[in-house]
């Protein structure tokens, strides 16, 4: 809706001569008729909803909050709070302008619970006139609505309850159900319930003799491990099963693959003499032989096409000496099957009777397709919104009072007030020179709140620290590039000064700079203002609609925007002006601090859209057919009326709107478990850029895996800092003959290798490193497959498990057993990001986050946390290193981090 006018321009010529009897009705999916339980208003309660702890960017952008805000200027359309049509736009768009992730995945903004969603099988279409023909254009109306609870931390030593706010995040224009049905490789949201259809896991690793390239799941002739293998299901095979034991009966397969005919029926005949009746046409094979023949025809002699184990239960038909096989009972190990999520219902709105918990960063869905009336092709896009029905004024006032009681460590935003001097950089400049030059330096034209993360990430040469003296306070000079701007909106580069104790720091809970604005203007006012600004009106029309335009221009929202970005008050406020302002960090931040009480565009009231008819030139005698089609689309995409009062939103459709990226950025800067300063102490040679890249993942997984106390954090950082300097590595394995024998050849380890003799003092452990030197030297695949074979869960040398599951990550995770455990632990902790590190072990080195997470998981699999709780560096070193290598250096790193953490 935000680009409404741009979609409708140019269609007035298609009115009278078009053969069209009325408004175009969208082609909608057939609603799912299955019953769906829904909540009622009287049942609504958020008492059980826990305050959120974590935030995540919806597309997993790990940049700093200011960079994320200015990035939104790249959107092709859909800015907060005005769209390209001049209408109010309560959210932001991610589209081709902002960039779309390759997998098009959308992730939850914060911890919360899913309360409602809609998933159409296929996106509906609206038929618009293009020249003299109508063209159907799809519009995804799929959405997910998540409820969250925002609450400041408790005050130490106080029993007072912090204020809280219930808010909602909305994800619009998501992918269709048909796309998931066609491609099973696409991850599905875990808040969808599981379907009765299961799949063989991608980690299933049974093999048929001689076919190591085709792993799968064994099918047995009875419901126990002792059952003989009669078939192999490939990974990903769809199955339905019955029963409750460890082995379940296959229901969707008549028999082994080799006996299934082209028409789907079962081939083969079996001797009636070996069939023991059970019930009906079901029999058990009984024979003195372990295996009995299945024949192609009911005669002897005849070709034997398969063998079945004695004890197999079969269903047969016919009479005579041989009976026709109709079904063979088959069983599979249930633990190697996994369910598929499916929406509770398709093609209708689902309001969940029992909301489903969801974590920040969990999968919401994928970007769907939306085609504007004037677009040649559909576009993938996400419309993201955040709003609340609570009393925002009351909450912010209480939150600000609460912030005054929080410790200083919670103040993570430095305020550089309007008028801050930005001193141009010179080589070898000193603090005294900067102070002297500041009087003649350009001044910033707007306030800017700077996140501590940005300052922590500056290189050493971009900071100058001046200690306090008897005549002046301590000062910190920071070199900032392109963050502040001057009165002409030119970005400034240079040095700014923080006077310690004077330049203020703020907590996120202070809501510094935020305004709550009540604006009651309607679309007709905004559109009249827009038409006037872009000279769409004739002189007569300008006068006719001036009262409407002025109500919008002088309304609270526009007035505040004029204050921020159009101080000359030229009477124009367009999306282009807004987009230009969003490129400036201070303006983008100021706009993101607007909390707007406005009617939601998802709350459908026909009269507010009918009020635009005259402005768009539509009447009974001169119908604007594409506008009629657009109004029908607006109706179909709206959802507020069916959902609001069932989930705690105001039924009258006028919530408080927040800038979603601004809100997430504000609170993602609260105190982190691991800071840049700690990371630098653990890895003093590492670059700031790399530390900034890895830090979000360290803070993402530290609380998940309980590395969340000062002692656990300091020991974890010390160990990783020494082991890998936080670099994600893969074990090399490419060794010279002598070196491979030294590392892997001797009983008792390297210390028992005799360099002079090129032999072992206590005997050889792996003699093939001498006898088959040519095979293993300088060949990582061969060497690691051999030395790691038949241990750590690895199979024999010929499977190459030793190489496939070699050490990877910032702490070397090694062995198939550990990769299997990592898969289970990761998927349990991250149900919306299911991965299989057995099938795809290189994920640990290809994707930084898993290279980091694997270290936390390794600690969780061991007694690392217990050793850290005892502050025992020797124990934590033994757990991580397997010995005491580098113990002195590890202690030094540990003590350096402790100094910073005041331990």
UniProtKB/TrEMBL annotation:
<protein>
    <recommendedName>
        <fullName>EF-hand domain-containing protein</fullName>
    </recommendedName>
</protein>
<dbReference type="InterPro" id="IPR002048">
    <property type="entry name" value="EF_hand_dom"/>
</dbReference>
<dbReference type="InterPro" id="IPR018247">
    <property type="entry name" value="EF_Hand_1_Ca_BS"/>
</dbReference>
<dbReference type="InterPro" id="IPR052354">
    <property type="entry name" value="Cell_Wall_Dynamics_Protein"/>
</dbReference>
<dbReference type="InterPro" id="IPR023346">
    <property type="entry name" value="Lysozyme-like_dom_sf"/>
</dbReference>
<feature type="domain" description="EF-hand">
    <location>
        <begin position="560"/>
        <end position="588"/>
    </location>
</feature>
<dbReference type="GO" id="GO:0005509">
    <property type="term" value="F:calcium ion binding"/>
</dbReference>
